Amino acid sequence: MTQRPANVRDELLSAAIDLLQSDGAAGATARAICNQVGVGPPALYHHYGSLDRLHHAAVDAAFDKVVACYSSAEEAGGPLQSIRNSWGMLMQFARDNPQMYGLINQQIIRGKMPPLAQNAFNQMVADLTLLAQQQPLRHDPATAAKMLWAGGLGAATFIASAALGGERDLSLGEVILQALLDSLRRV
């Protein structure tokens, strides 16, 4: 009997990411994932417990790439630049990974915000707290973060949808960000 390498768990995750990015959840079935890796469905359930858990792990792994690019306010040159950078990374991720972005958005809508997304939201509140120390805001940092978060999800959803139709332009995201930032500042 030939033994599988110890990295079957990683191979399953990699296959799930590939299939979710190319075909969405409908194409990332247990059978398709296991076929790509060359194992039977029991291996998937042994390592992840369920297809849904594997999908969640794949979404978290993909989103981790976005979060890994995040730079703190100090590293970015200030809170406003940090917000702009993280917004840009989200728009880029939605454009380049529209199927995966859709899965992240579905988790958020169901009230199951991925931990990395929650960390990103918390960082946005921290950035806005710093920004409020530099210039007056119309809203407290938590409310301002919710406004930016909602606008970001809407813009990213639009960009992901457009990307599925072949459009690759990110400029709408920048327009929405600027409008939101302008609306947050007190004049």
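[next item in queue]
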Amino acid sequence: MSALAGPGSFDGAVERDDADRAGRSSIPEASGSMWLLPALLVGVVLFAIATSAHATLYKWVDQHGLVHYSDRLPPDAVNRASTQLNREGIAVRKIGQAPTAAELQARQAAEKQKHELDRERMLAERRDRALLDSYTDESDIDLAKTRALATIEGQITSAQSYIAQIAKRREQLQAKQASYAPGAVPASIRSEVASIDADLARQAEFVVGKQKEAAAVAARYDADKRRFHDLKSSLADDASPDATRLSAAGASRY
């Protein structure tokens, strides 16, 4: 009986070894299936959404750092950065995150500053062109300055002459007022004196304004003269290499 039990025991041992090996080999396969399951689920979700009636898929990250996929963006994800995918899951469009109020304000301020700088540059270029078109040399600017100042000086001289006339008339009225003392001065004389005083104040203000205008005009022409000189010098420097090459080319022909 022991002989009969020997082979039977050997076969049983073989069967147990085979079962153990089969069990051990199934462990990594089951582990691999567990890792593949989330990827398969994501693939199924992507496929289901991409093949839906909308045929558009959005991918975005929420405030907790979690990635989401859907066929439309929820309200809380509209202002977040997102990626639009096609049916094959390929990115076809990237949408940046909406700027904050502070970022938007800073961007608007930068755009405004750039617009102002561009406008100032355009006006400066226009003034330079007008300056070069208006004068042939610096003496023309000096002549224009002299004429402009002469016009203003003539206005000042005329106002000062008028001031002297009405001041003389006021002296005459004051003498008349003294002759009525200690009686009452006629109302007509008092009214004329008051009118002259007001006119003298206006004329004095006019003269001061014209003197300031003359100073501003002189400064503007002086600035134009300096700018004209700089522009002419720049143009001469830019043209000098061409002139040198032309002279060299002409000399090489002889």
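[queue empty]
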